[in-house]
Amino acid sequence: MNEQTVIDIGTEAAWISIKVSAPVLVTALVVGLVISVFQAATQINEQTITFVPKILCIAIVLAISGPWILQIMLVFTTGLFNKIPVIANGF
Asked: What Å distances lie between residue 81 and 1, 42, 65, CA to CA?
C-alpha cells in the first residue's frame, strides 16, 4: 500500500460522508431558517419552538433518503472489503 492509495480511500470516504450527511444538514438548515424568520416576524422568542419541527423534518428526510444512504454506504464498504487483497499484496 502506498501513500496514494491511502489518500484515495480517505478522499472517497470524505466525499461519501458529505453526500450522506447533506440531506439531513440541508433540511435542518432550511427548517431552522424558516422558523427563525417566523419568530422574527411574530416576535415570539421561545427557544424550544425550533426543536420539534426540526426533529420531525429530519425524521421524514431520514425515512425518505434512508435507502439511498444505505446503498451508498454499502457500495463503499463492499468496495473497501474487495480492495483488501489488492492492498495487502502491496506489502
From this structure: 15, 54, 24
Torsion, Cα 35 41 43 45, to 10 degrees, reads 20
**Structure-block grid coordinates of residue 36:** 427563525
Q: How far apart are CA 53 and CA 17, in angstroms?
A: 25
| C-alpha cell recorded at residue 27 | 433540511
Predicted pLDDT of residue 91: 62
Tell me how far apart the alpha carbons of residues 44 and 23 are, in angstroms, rounded to a whole number. 28
pLDDT of 2 reads 81
φ, ψ of residue 37 in degrees (nearest 5): -65, -40
pLDDT in tens, 54-66: 999 999 999 999 9
Give the number of other Cβ atoms within 10 Å of residue 27's Cβ. Answer: 19
CA 69 to chain centre: 8
